[in-house]
Predict the 3D structure of the following.
Amino acid sequence: MATTLTDKEAMSLAIKIAKQGVGRVSPNPFVGCVVLSKNGTLLSSGYHEIYGGPHAEINALNNLNEEALKEARVFITLEPCSHYGKTPPCAKRLAELPIQEVIYGLLDPNPLVSGKGIELLQCAGKKVTQFFGRNEELEELCEVFLLNQRKNQVFVSLKVATSLDGMMGLKSGESKWLTGEASRNHAHYLRATHDAVLVGVNTILLDNPSLNIRNPQFVNKTNIVVILDPNGKCISRLVNLNVTKTHTASELFIFTQEKSVIKSDYCQVFAAPLIDEKNFDLNFILQILWDKNIRSVLVEGGAYTLSEFLNQNKAHRLYQFLAPQLIGGNNGLNWSSQFTVNKLQDRITLTQIKISNFDQDLLISGLIQNPQIPKERFVAEESSSTSKPTLKFYRSQNGWIFGICEGLGESFDLPPLLIRFFWVLSFFLYGLGLGIYLALAVSLPRKDKIEKAFEKQFLGVCVLLSNKMSLEIGVIRFLTVLLALTTGGFAILAYIILYFSLEKNNC
Ligand SMILES: NC(=O)c1ccc[n+]([C@@H]2O[C@H](COP(=O)([O-])OP(=O)(O)OC[C@H]3O[C@@H](n4cnc5c(N)ncnc54)[C@H](OP(=O)(O)O)[C@@H]3O)[C@@H](O)[C@H]2O)c1
């Protein structure tokens, strides 16, 4: 039996299926697409499956013929692309189909393409609507891509497993395992959602972890491992460590101080500067990772490393698994022990919290809001170059000049129709003003005294020169005519200049 979906259900489904691209599409975003018939029946769905492969829209539309698509409504989590990249523009493909409406979630944050997919569809006469109501979910789905595009920054998530009192193990180094198998399985899923995993050298030496992805959903997926080792403590011991059994030299990055750099067959070694006597400049390290095409990093510990990401304001999201246990602070290793807040008002809070269960454990995740960081650093409130409101004008083939207001918080587009409406309204008002003036000029009784002058004048303009009319009437007439002529003249002139100077939209 055919499934019928509401708009909300269709977008929820698009978000859900988009997540099937996890671990396979970076640096592209996760995108899902759902196609409904005009009666709301589910016709098809698709998602962006693999980097370089077809986009979600194409995967959803591939099995549908034009007959089935008549007046269909297409739901997409992200604005359809309008440029030729690894695949042709999806907006162009949608524009050619007999669909009725495209409902998109987020505007493409890439300033080069933002809004252009919408324009292309609108020019083709398609109704284009931004979907409201699942914004937090949509932003979370695309959070890495949004930050990458807006700020050219690596998205950093912190992941930690602790007891209820915040201990990640004992100070002695004993820490395995606080959480259950279901949590650990999800932790491997989180590894797959990020391009790299990062740990401090003590975790490598004490726990000897493999740090690969061991989740049945991602059997052949490899990942990059980054180790912070300022004093080169692990470089010479790599041969005995598990991480070199699961990762090739090209997948293992070790950052150390200039003086500790040594050549190794088991990893790539990078020199990084310190910001004080002990700590790396994390900005520098993240920039190197960015240059290596790493767009997201999962910091897995230990306490020192996690704390330093908080101290240097470099973390965007926290995943904290909570095991129903108590360890106590005397011997316990507090996961944020090195993170310092001097005033309570400087404490970090989490927003857009999600809580889920993994058997006995809880997972709390949320966006990290550090009051010491200017608000615009955070994804949810990111103000991008595209979100600065700008009104852009175009002319279409039928001669209409129309505009689109871009970037009002990524949630509002001024439809071309509205611009057209104001354009027509201004001409209408001008015509009305001129009409009223002419009607008055014709119907009002002439004053004998000025009869002669009236004949000489051109709609009242020359009356001041004639010297025979009262000054007040002359000034009023003069100003009225001047206003009517200049506004009308300007409107016509502006239209002509705009028409010839504006980019012709290829619709
Ligand atoms: N429960 C969990 O989720 C979990 C996860 C991971 C680890 N752990 C546990 O955590 C414990 C290790 O934690 P830890 O805090 O002692 O060590 P760690 O964070 O693993 O490593 C700390 C060391 O790494 C280097 N390092 C880290 N960040 C640095 C930075 N920003 N700048 C410069 N150097 C940096 C320093 O090396 P130098 O000492 O050479 O200066 C530092 O002392 C282990 O017992 C492990 O089992 C638990």
